[in-house]
Design brief:
Length: 208
């Protein structure tokens, strides 16, 4: 029987609660993972995912960048008159003339690591973003089929593998899908053991 210890990832990427949101985002992106346990010393205190980080970043106020040169009032009046003449111009276009990144979505804002939003993310930590409870845990000796059912029942995509209070691995839906694709969960059960020198026929075992 295939067990969790047979498919789990043992080299688990972890983060600390005092790591900045920026550092966590960069680490997950660099390692191409979508989440990581949060450890304070050797104790698991939470889990943080890329979705958690992006959702948090989306709630932060934008950090508009002012142009170096401010236009005179008369110049702004001319800009407004020109924009009113263009029917296909979005209503927010006036404000994007004032601030370069106003209204940009999170993905666009985060694509520029030198942008002002990154400075804001340096002021917040993983502890503010992470999920504290419940932290889904299973035993390394749990059958993979039971682990799959456990994850399905709780609607989760990853689960920590624990021996007591010690983190020994992590299992994701990708790990289970890989095991299925590699036929590791497939087993054949025979009522009778075939005799030596026989071969399988669609209607049963036959002699050569």
């Amino acid at each position: 029987m295939l067990r969790v210890r047979d498919i789990m990832t043992k080299d688990v990427l972890t983060v600390s609660p005092d790591m900045t949101v920026r550092e966590a985002m960069e680490l997950l992106a660099a390692r191409h993972v979508s989440g990581a346990p949060v450890l304070a010393g050797h104790e698991v205190v939470g889990v943080v995912t890329a979705s958690d980080l992006m959702a948090f970043a989306a709630t932060l106020p934008g950090a508009p960048v002012e142009h170096e040169e401010s236009a005179e009032w008369g110049e702004w009046e001319r800009v407004v008159e020109e924009e009113e003449d263009e029917e296909d111009l979005p209503a927010a276009a006036y404000f994007t003339e004032l601030w370069e990144d106003a209204g940009a979505d999170v993905a666009l804002r985060m694509s520029n690591v030198e942008g002002p939003e990154w400075n804001v993310l340096d002021e917040h930590t993983v502890e503010e973003v992470m999920t504290r409870a419940p932290i889904w845990k299973i035993s390394p000796d749990m059958p993979v089929t039971a682990a799959a059912q456990y994850m399905k029942d709780h609607g989760i995509h990853r689960v920590l593998v624990m021996e007591g209070d010690k983190l020994v691995g992590i299992v994701t839906t990708t790990d289970i899908a890989r095991a299925v694709a590699e036929h590791k969960l497939t087993s054949r059960t025979y009522v009778f053991e075939p005799e030596k020198g026989s071969r399988f026929h669609p209607r049963g075992w036959t002699d050569k």
